[in-house]
# Entry
Amino acid sequence: MSDLIYLYVFMYSIVGLFLIGTLYFQIRYSKFGFLFITFLLWHFFAFSLAPIFDINNISDVSFINYQYHILNDDPGFLTALHLFLYAMSLFFTSYITLRSGVRSDITLKIESLVSNPEFIFKFLLIIGVVSNCLYFYSFGLKNALMMASSMRSNHYDGDTGFLFLKSISYISLYSACFIPYLIKSSVKNKWWLVILYCILVILAYLNSVSRTILLTYLMLPLFLTTMMGAKKLSVKKIIALILTFTIGSVILFYGKSFGNVMSSFVDGGNAVFVEKSVNLLDVILKLVHEQSYLWYSVDAGVDSFLSTGVHIPIEIILSITGFIPSSLLNNLGLGILNPDSVSMPLSCLNSSAFNTNDCTVPTRLIGYSSYFMPLIGGVLYGVTVGWVLSSLNKAWKVCESYDIKTTWVPYLLWLLFSAFLTFVPNTISRAFFLVFIVAFLYLIKVTIKRLRLV
# Structure
C-alpha cells in the first residue's frame, strides 16, 4: 500500500465527497432525507475516514480490525476501486433520480388501499405490548436483562424457547413510520400512543442493548417530525440539530455500557459506569472504529471472490420464511427452510477473515457486493441504493404536500429496505413478517368489505 498511498488517500477522499454529496442532495430535496443520515454517515466513516486514518496511522485500529491485519494484507486497489465505483454510482443515480418526475396521484392510491393507518399503528403497538408482557412474564425482568447482555457478548447458553417473543416484539418498532403523521394529526389520545411507542422502544433497547434501536426508532422519527414544522433557518431547527447531535453522541458513547450496567445492577453485581467526557473528536474516532469493519469486510469479499468465486448466501434467501417458528417447520418436515440450518452462513465466512469463530462480523449488503462480484457488485449496489433513496424521498415529498396521512408508506418502505441492507437473516425475517401482517390485515379489510356488499 505504501507505493500507492497518495492514490488511495485521493480515492477514499473522493468516496467521502460522493457520500456527503448524496446526503446533501437528499436533505436539500426534502426533510425525509434526514432519515438517511445514519446510513450515509456510517458509510462515510467506514469507507472514507477509516481507510484514510488507517493509511496515515492517525488512530489505533480496534481489536477486531487488528485481527484482520494479522491474517491478511492491507486492503488493496480492488477494494478502493470497488468502493469508489459504489460511491460514484450512488451519487449520480441519486442526483438523476431526484431530478426526474414523480406521479402526483400516489397519495390517492395509498389512501384507497389504507384509509385508516391508525388501525395498523395501534395493531403493531398491541403486538409489542402483548409480546413484551409474555416475554417478561416468561423470563422475569432480571433474567431478561441479564440474557440481553449475555447474548450481546455471545455468552448465553441457557433456555431460548421464548426468544421468538422478543423477535415478535421488534415488529412493533416499525410503527415508527406513523410517528410523524400521528404527532401532526388530530388523532384522539395521540400523545398517549406516542408515549406507549417510546416505552416499547426503550424495552426493545433493554432487551437487546442495541444503540441502533434508540437512534433509528426513537431519535430519527422524533427529529424528522420536529424538522417538518421548522423553517429553513429557524431557531427551532438549530435547537433540534444541537439536541439530536448531543443526545446521539451520548447514545453512541454510553448506550452499550448503560445496558450492560443495567443488567449487572439487577443481578446484584458491582458494575461501575465509568464516566468519560465526550467531544467531537471522540465521537468521530469511535464511529470510525466501530464502522471500519465494513471496509475490511469489502476487502474480505474481494479476496473470497478471487479465491473461490461467487458466494451465494442461502440463509438470506431462506430468511423469507425465517419468521415461521423452526419447530413448526421441523414438524412439517421443512426444517431445511430454516435459515439456521445453513452450515456456513455468510457471517461465519466473513468472520473467519477476522480470525473469529463466533460469526459475529456481518458483511451488510455493501460487503456482500464484493463477495458477489468486485467492481460490478459495487456499481449495482450504488445504483440500487441511490434509486431507492431518491424514489422514496420523492414519494415522501408528494405525500407531505398533498396528504400527510400517507407519509407512513415511504417511511415504512425505507425501514423495510434498510432491514434488507443489513443482510442479517433475523432482521430480514422480521421485515417479511411485517409485510405478511400488513397483507393479512388488508385481506381482512377487503373480505369484510365484500361481505357487507353481499
User: Anything to note?
Assistant: The mean pLDDT is 81. The two ends are 74 Å apart (CA to CA). The first helix runs from residue 5 to 29.
